[in-house]
Amino acid sequence: MSQTPPSSDRPESSSPEQSAGAANDPQSAAAQQAPQDAGEDRQSPDTAGSPLSREEHSSQLQAELEEEKNRVLMVQAELENFRKRSRRELDDQRRYAAVPVVSDLLAVLDNLNRAIGSAPDDPKAKGLVDGVKMVASMFESVFEKHHCRRIASVGEVFDPNLHEAIGQQPSDQYPAGTVMLETQVGYQLHDRVIRPAQVFVSTGPA
Question: What Pfam families does the entry give (predicted)?
Fold first, then answer.
């Protein structure tokens, strides 16, 4: 009769080759280390801070929205101001585009008026003088048509924006500070002075 060898309850010890293989297997090492790391994570406190509540998040979004609205309104206001300024500058360019031409023509009109003032009182020259007066009158009509008009002077209170004082004289007829004599006619185009009127200003009675 054959005898069965007795079984051993002792666990089989791993061979040196198996121990070395387990040490060289990174997956096995990671699998053994993972439970330990997970346990450490569960034990460590959360240092990231608690998330914002729904009300706080809503308030933050509302504040950002208001800030963006204000920024958009500011940009729109700046754009509107730029448009108004551009339109105003364009209107001024159109309104006063004739200033250089009118300034040059004023010299011609001055010479015509000087010729009329110095013309001799001679019946033979009457036709020529009348012709010069007609040309001067046409100049004045064209100026008025384009909103270029004379500046009122004599009898008016002296205005440094409209008048250029070249002297002062006492006068019994005009009160102090009033224009008593005009030596050169002034003109303005719309509300812009092309040239001021040259005047004498009264200082009042002597």
Answer: GrpE
Domain that holds residue 81: 59-95
- Do 173 and 199 lie in one domain? The reply is yes
pTM across the whole model: 0.58
pLDDT digits (tens, 9 = 90+) for 53-82: 888 878 888 888 888 889 999 999 999 999
- Residue 12 scores a pLDDT above 70: no
What's the Cα-to-Cα distance from 95 to each of 31, 78, 85, 87, 89, rounded to whole Å? 89, 25, 15, 12, 10
Please tell me whether residues 163 and 127 are part of one structural domain: no
Same domain, 165 and 196: yes
Please tell me whether residues 136 and 184 are part of one structural domain.
no
Q: Are residues 202 and 164 in the same domain?
A: yes
